[in-house]
């Protein structure tokens, strides 16, 4: 384990922002801390990177952990160029190889705007530069607080692809926070946090399989016969259309196979992270 948090707790006055969190981050893994606004993600991140001390509990690092952090708001100077910003930052670390800025700039595709002022870049370009800055001292664990917030959907997906590439190519351990449920699919491990508490953990697929039910809607030419044949009770029956809530696609397939001759059309929708979140917390993602 590269990093472990035990019973991590942070209170602000009477408000409990993080409430007894237990996290385990394996070397080389990609972890997403997922939750709505105010869930306690940034507070958790600040505790994990040692920026704040927990009210209770502890953070334990494995040997040789070297941390890189991409904060929610950039630490770079808007008036300086990308290259100048990175050079200045590189000089602040000891033992940074002279060609490091050139190396990360190429790795992250910054060369076409390396001479442009940071303040004039697009949101996605800025985020790439912020990530490059955090990689200058060769971290083996990279923390990113909401790296995709405010970006359009294509740019968000490009940032995730970039991070996955870094994870694989550089054996980087990645820990990020996000409130976009659909993004969690790409992580190896997801911690769903709500009101400072852990409500679920596992891969997005496992969380969905456990908490999000799929929906199968059948249109039939014989409602009575179909109801007789299917052992699962429909959740809705409207005219010649029946809706079933099913745990997975296999059960849907069994129903379809058993009723094939009675069905005119069907629709299947797998459970989403939104459904899982709703089932876990009783509320829609805010
Ligand atoms: N320094 C502080 N003083 C008082 N309350 C705080 C402080 N920092 C955070 N909080 C509160 O703790 C809770 C968790 O905040 P946090 O910023 O960790 O949430 P978050 O999940 O990162 O939200 P977002 O997605 O909006 O960034 C919120 O209710 C917030 O108001």
Automatic annotation (TrEMBL):
Nucleotide-binding as UniProt keyword: yes
Keyword Protein biosynthesis: no
Matching InterPro entries: AAA+_ATPase, ABC_transporter-like_ATP-bd, ABC_transporter-like_CS, ABC_transporter_ATP-binding, P-loop_NTPase
Superkingdom of this protein's organism: Bacteria
Alphabetic keyword roster: ATP-binding, Nucleotide-binding, Transport
SUPFAM superfamilies given in the database record: P-loop containing nucleoside triphosphate hydrolases (SSF52540)
All residue ranges annotated as the ABC transporter domain in the record: 3-220
GO molecular function annotation: ATP binding; ATP hydrolysis activity
Family: Belongs to the ABC transporter superfamily.
Protein name: ABC transporter, ATP-binding protein
